[in-house]
Prior knowledge:
Distance between the termini: 40 Å
Number of helices: 10
Oligomer: single chain
Number of strands: 0
Helix content: over 70%
Amino acid sequence: MLSTTNQLEAYKAIVSAGGLTTSDSATAATTAAASATATSSVLSALVLSTVSYPSSVTDRVNQITSWAGSLTSAADTATSYAALIKSYSDPSVLIQLTIGWDVYCRANSLNASELDISSAIGDASEPSALNAALVGLATVSLAAAMDDINTTLAASATSTGTATAVSLSDEQVATLTAAVTAFTPLMASVTSALTTLAARQVTAQASATKAEDAYTNAISVALISSSVSSAAVASALSAITPAAVLALLTGES
């Protein structure tokens, strides 16, 4: 191991660097998850459980609550994506994928191509796009409108601590409506970026799984092939190996 001068110099370089680096894609996904969680918390805090909202704003208030839930889901997806990227960002894992994919392509007469999990690790565009969309979620107008409404409704609180349903001014309703309307396309951008990221996660995981399965099967064939003529494990191999595989490896087909 590490028999050339360049390999030894590379060893010293990686030690000096403190080991492998975290890919930009994993970092961007982790950042997006944190941003989504933070914004979800902001939106959730705007809707008070101690306040009874009048019908004039119920739809808008419910929309804010829905957005908070959607952002929580977005954080979960981004966290899952980062975990996927990190789990395969290991040379010992990547070499297994390399071997498995090489065998799969040769066995199926396919031209070798880069695995999608590899390009996902090296390409931060999808998680970065999600993060950019999340950063663009300006909550100031929503917060101002809801704070004003909550203050008005809280002032009518009963002795039990629960606010009664009172009429809000037309201006208050209009201000909240405008804020919700302005926020809608911003959330649409998040949803679009999230859909793209989720789709990339599916294809990346699928490619990794295919290569991993190929590696496992290739190793099995290689090991069986090396022992197929041994009387010491003949019964065991017959018990666990498909007949067609044994026939091929013993030259009986």
